[in-house]
From TrEMBL, chain A:
Belongs to the gas vesicle GvpA family. It comes from the Bacteria. PANTHER family: GAS VESICLE PROTEIN A1 (PTHR35344:SF4), GAS VESICLE STRUCTURAL PROTEIN 2-RELATED (PTHR35344). This is Gas vesicle protein. Keywords: Gas vesicle. The keyword 4Fe-4S does not apply. Coiled coil: none annotated. It is found in: Gas vesicle.
């Protein structure tokens, strides 16, 4: 196997599982696409932003605006 | 959610007394008869333990946090502070991963917060049908990330030979037609660059098409921009796939073949808890 397996278990600490590139992790934890109605959720905008919101659809936010860690297109 | 409740929520978060109040951070929702073992998990704060909150036949994994750590202002700063953001992202992922290794789990986005257990239970219960659908969809599957890179084109002149005068003579004493030759070279450079871009995108599409065929679902994520300064590669594909457990080995073989066939640099990450496939895909 040429890839690094992402550990799913093991004692969790604040450091969390190691070996997962941060940018790949953020792709996933910030935009899971699940509709949640948290009393406060992070919203991603061109300026990194947290919004107080009772209903947030993170996936749609993510599709419409640039994520804070990405800059230009692929080329 | 009525307007009144919404206003109340906003006021609670923004009111002056909120910094002292506690909030409930929700990591994930899982399907289990018993409680997942969360004892050794730290979560996002060391002040309170990670614990389970029953939501009918589902269980939410939550932690009580200080409201003052989760205000609008604090999170604004946190999102621009890579170290802080990383700390929270990894803490969140750590809990999600630990729970997912025990029971079928739907991860929640980073920083999903409620004003107390009751609010969390009420809100999450209201979405239990959606959680069940997601659990069905991701059962016996894992998420795998596939990123494709091509070597970055040299900037400005690209291929230096394109710009080099044909001989010393042309440099010192431009011959008739030198201007046209110059334009010709520029045009060639331009079309070659376009050709290279088209080739790169074709490689990206080919990889995506092949991996999609063995995946149950696929999503293309936003490609990452230029990273470290000495990274001489351009990312042309950042995609993620929901792959059945019994096909994971096939993915490995396919990627090896795609590397040989395309010559592109292909990175695979996983298995991930299917973060990208728990929403309405």
């Amino acid at each position: 196997m040429t890839h690094e397996a992402v550990p799913w278990d093991g004692p969790g600490g604040l450091s969390g599982p190691i070996g997962v590139p941060l940018v790949d992790l953020l792709d996933r934890v910030l935009a899971t696409g699940v509709v949640v109605s948290g009393d406060l959720v992070i919203a991603i905008a061109d300026v990194p932003l947290v919004r107080v919101s009772l209903h947030a659809l993170l996936s749609s936010v993510n599709e419409r605006v640039p994520a804070p860690w990405a800059d230009s297109g692929p080329l | 959610m009525s307007q009144g409740e919404e206003e109340q929520g906003l006021m609670t978060e923004r009111g002056t007394g909120t910094s002292e109040a506690n909030a409930v951070y929700a990591f994930a929702v899982c399907h289990t008869e018993g409680d997942p073992d969360v004892e050794r998990l730290t979560g996002v704060t060391r002040d309170e333990p990670v614990r389970c909150l029953r939501i009918g036949s589902l269980t939410a994994i939550v932690q009580t946090v200080r409201g003052s750590d989760f205000t609008d202002e604090v999170w604004q700063k946190r999102l621009t502070d890579e170290a802080e953001l990383e700390r929270y992202a990894r803490a969140h992922h750590s809990v999600v991963s630990a729970v997912a290794s025990q029971f079928p789990t739907v991860p929640l986005p980073l920083a999903t917060l409620y004003n107390g257990d009751e609010r969390a239970a009420l809100s999450l219960a209201g979405e239990s049908a959606r959680f069940r659908a997601a659990l069905t969809r991701i059962a016996h599957h894992a998420e795998w990330g596939v990123k494709v890179y091509v070597p970055v084109a040299r900037s400005a002149g690209d291929d230096p030979s394109d710009e080099r005068p044909a001989s010393a003579a042309t440099r010192t004493r431009p011959a008739t037609g030198a201007g046209r030759a110059y334009l010709e070279r520029k045009r060639n450079l331009h079309s070659r660059r376009e050709q290279r871009q088209a080739d790169s995108l074709r490689v990206a599409d080919a990889v995506d098409a092949d991996v999609s065929r063995l995946a149950t679902e696929s999503r293309r994520l936003r490609p990452h921009g230029g990273g470290a300064g000495d990274d001489r590669r351009v990312q042309v594909l950042n995609a993620t796939y929901l792959v059945a457990g019994h096909r994971a080995a096939e993915l490995d073989l396919l990627v090896a073949e795609l590397r040989r066939r395309t010559g592109a640099h292909i990175e695979v990450s996983g298995p991930w808890v299917p973060y990208s496939f728990v929403g309405e895909v």
